[in-house]
């Protein structure tokens, strides 16, 4: 029902498009990977070329965005691909590929060990939420032959990354510091 109502709502912009006029609203589901650089620059470029179009973004969890797209509430989703998802009613296309890196500062405690890789499993981690593409990449990296065991973070407790980071800093002692203290 929602999909049919959304289609009816788009009739006027569809009729305008037949006359060569682009107007209406494009509703975008935005996942974390796209929100910081890709989507803002794409929106700016698009609006410069098509000022008659309104763009709206919905920043929600992947599962919610898929449900909204099926209902016709959003037009497309932009973010990291879900490799293990089987969604025969949806089409996905890779825009780019990106590697996952673990970076350490020069004097990081892990680098004091002769084999830093062997210490990764026991290191403290701030991890993406369970089933996020970045989390899946990290989990797979730890099951590579010869790699350390996968790090454990106590599971996804349903709180945001910021809350997990703050809780981890408080647990480690010293509390949170102002940026100028670093």
Automatic annotation (TrEMBL):
Pfam families: LysR_substrate (PF03466). Signal peptide: none annotated. InterPro entries: HTH-type_LysR_regulators, LysR_subst-bd. Residues 20-146 form the LysR substrate-binding domain. GO terms for biological process: regulation of DNA-templated transcription. One of its GO terms (cellular component) is cytosol. It comes from the Bacteria. This is LysR family transcriptional regulator. It comes from Klebsiella pneumoniae.
